[in-house]
Amino acid sequence: MQQPLVSVIVPNYNHAAFLKERMESILNQSYPHYEVIILDDHSTDASLEVIKEYAKHPKVAQVIINETNCGSPFIQWQRGFSLAKGEIIWIAESDDYCEQTMLERLVDTYVKNHCVLAFARSQVVNLKGEKKYIAQRMFKKDEHWDGVHFIKKYLTVGNRIYNASSCIFSKQAALKADKVFMQYKECGDWIFWLEIACQGNVAVVSEPLNYFRRGDETCTSKATLSGQVDIEDYSVMSFLKEKGYLSRYAWFLKCKRIAYRISYEKNRYADDVVKQKVMERWHLSAYYYVLARCSHVFHDLFK
């Protein structure tokens, strides 16, 4: 098998507690042909002490420490792309980790299927590292698709690539991607996968080789409580419409789902002020709230 160089970008902000596990899971990969680029976004915890332990490792090509926080993980992504020497990029987020064979399996799948993007399923773990559940149930077997078909089937109903750490993708495709993803705080990865996938083939490894850390204190959970995720979801759906990927049925399902969240997912938002902001952003007609009510009643009947 051809062994392309993989540039592993490790964007870090205040993940000292997880960074050593992250680095060890990278440096112990069975796939040998890679470089590591560590990007620290002005951490205020003990991250720099951990980074110093690895700075002189032969696989670590660059360490960049920001003097001020840039405010967005996606700005860090773009910086990593410009520094990468490899033709394939892996964004290994600093609070996640993976199986020793993940990179080898992904590169093999990527090359065989002439991909611009390949990803593995993820096992969700909590802040203590305890395994909770295997995500992405829709990917029960190894598959590959034309990228536009993948977008219409999986990326119009939501971001089915839950975690950047589970993916490898073409550097060339990344540099061609619309930079609008950098304007987002939470959903920029969704836009980014759309921009990559439309340039070629996409493949999945169905085995859960990636460990995706989630908990009350993770950025993902905070962003959900603040309403940021659902507010940015509206912008992504508008982007999909503009690109011609979004069917009327997909839009209908998304609006119905948002109405249900607003009406019945009591712990989704931090308070009523946040809920109101989400409602104003989506500006849904009463029709969708009636459908949400019907769904809620139906679910109650079969509990």
Q: What would a concise description of this structure say?
A:
The protein has 303 residues and is α/β, with parallel strands linked by helices.
The number of helical segments is 12
Helix fraction? 40-55%
* DSSP E strands, number: 10
Order of helices and strands: EHEHEHEEHEEEHEHHEHHHHH
Tell me, briefly, the overall form.
Answer: globular
Mean pLDDT: 94
Distance between the termini: 51 Å
Class based on secondary structure composition and strand pairing: alpha/beta
Radius of gyration: 20 Å
> Biggest sheet, open or closed, and with what strands and sense?
10 strands, mixed
What does this molecule look like?
By secondary structure, this protein is α/β, with parallel strands linked by helices. It is built from twelve helices and ten strands. The chain has helices at 16-27, 47-54, 73-83, 102-112, 147-155, 171-176, 188-197, 219-225, 228-243, 248-264, 272-282, 286-301, and strands at residues 6-12, 34-40, 60-65, 88-91, 97-98, 115-125, 131-134, 143-146, 167-170, 201-213. Strands 1, 2, 3, 4, 5, 6, 7, 8, 9 and 10 form a ten-stranded mixed beta sheet that branches. Helix 1 (16-27) packs parallel to helix 2 (47-54), helix 10 runs antiparallel to helix 11 (272-282) and helix 10 packs across helix 12 (286-301).
